[in-house]
Design goal:
By secondary structure, the protein is mainly alpha-helical. It is built from ten helices and two strands; from the N terminus they run H-H-E-E-H-H-H-H-H-H-H-H. Strands 1-2 form a two-stranded antiparallel ribbon. Strand 1 and strand 2 form a beta hairpin. The longest helix has 24 residues. It is globular, with a radius of gyration of 18 Å. The relative contact order is 0.13.
Length: 204
């Protein structure tokens, strides 16, 4: 596998570790500048200091596997919000993407695990139908003035055609258990906030 094909999995390790460190240290270090420095130092240690032959980031990858393209985008946005107070993803795009991921995951994972005779994972090896659906969704998002979502949706297709992950299945570029869990939890938290105050701001 070339350096280019290693780039996306390596970026996934970095972002996953950085998000975990940012969330864990956020309540302990209140000063913003010190918080950024502490995350950077711990991230470097987690990426390069071996523990029983593997770095902490490599241990994480061995547990969760490679992250999907959508997960990388969501994680990058979390870091930008927490550390830089900036949004990389438009709020409207994010709020439409996460519920969609939760719904797709609720249908996909039971079927892929053997509930029923149809296995949707097989569609990802020759993803003609999935490509058409993603392109259609992107066009509809553009026509409905959700330009951010329209740009985001084709990104897994681009990464799949460049084979930036070890997997040759499009599903692995779209969805992973970490993203699905985050989308479901975030949806539950947002519903709880909405019941308390319909104008509540979405969580990071």
């Amino acid at each position: 596998m070339s350096i280019l094909h290693n780039a996306l999995p390596y970026l996934g390790q970095v972002l996953l570790l950085a998000v975990l460190l940012t969330l864990m240290s956020g309540n302990l270090v209140k000063d913003k500048r010190l918080h950024r420095v502490s995350v950077a130092v711990l991230l470097l240690a987690g990426m390069f200091v071996p523990v029983y032959g593997l770095t902490f980031a490599q241990w994480l990858r061995s547990v969760v596997g490679d992250l999907s393209v959508f997960t990388l985008l969501i994680f990058a946005n979390i870091l930008a919000r927490r550390l830089l107070n900036q949004n990389l993803l438009p709020l409207v795009a994010r709020n439409k993407l996460l519920p969609g991921i939760a719904v797709v995951g609720l249908v996909f994972y039971p079927l892929a695990l053997g509930v029923g005779e149809f296995d949707p994972y097989r569609l990802g090896y020759v993803p003609v139908l999935m490509t058409a659906l993603l392109c259609l969704a992107s066009i509809l998002a553009w026509l409905n003035a959700c330009r951010g979502l329209a740009v985001i949706l084709p990104l897994p297709l681009i990464a799949f055609n460049l084979q930036l992950l070890e997997s040759t299945n499009l599903w692995d570029y779209l969805l992973d258990p970490v993203l699905f869990t985050y989308a479901v939890v975030q949806g539950g938290l947002n519903m709880k906030s909405f019941r308390r105050n319909k104008f509540a701001q979405p969580l990071a």
